[in-house]
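Sample pair:
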Amino acid sequence: MSNAPTNMHPPYTGPETRCTKCGSTGAYTEYMASGECIHSRASEVIGFAPNPRLHRECGRCGHQWDEATVEQEEAPHA
């Protein structure tokens, strides 16, 4: 059995991320180890399987999105 993430998310954008909708900086970030994740549409329910991710919410427009955690980033090529 593998410990690899069951879902892939967009790459981690760093601590000062920009909103993917309005471009504002200063998004609220919450680490999610697993669980349901709904961003206003039922098609975005990802279930309760282990699914580590960063849940982001824009402080200006309220847009929500998920990103991969730092550990899920690909290692730099030598």
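The chain has no helices and three strands.
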